[in-house]
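REQUEST ID: PR-0412
SUBMITTED BY: lab tech R.K.
PRIORITY: routine
TASK: structure prediction, single protein chain
INPUT:
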Amino acid sequence: MATFMDVHRGMNGITSEQLRQAHEADLAIEKEEGVHFEKAWADPASGTVYCLSTGPSADAVQRIHERTGHAPDEIHEVPLSI
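STATUS: complete
OUTPUT:
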């Protein structure tokens, strides 16, 4: 399994509840692509949301986010962590 950080832009003013709902939507179908969304962070002022996930590929992460209505602007594989 690879680790990915994806970035969503244009979500200005996102609330804690909206972030939670988006994350829960991903969790509800993540297994269909073999993905697991670990955590999400948001900066409402800049409209930027970050999601940390593991999965077989960036494409799998992309497909889940697209299906739940919030496709990322970028997905980065993160091969190293401590």
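NOTES: Strands lie at 2-8, 36-43, 48-55, 74-77.
REVIEWED BY: pending
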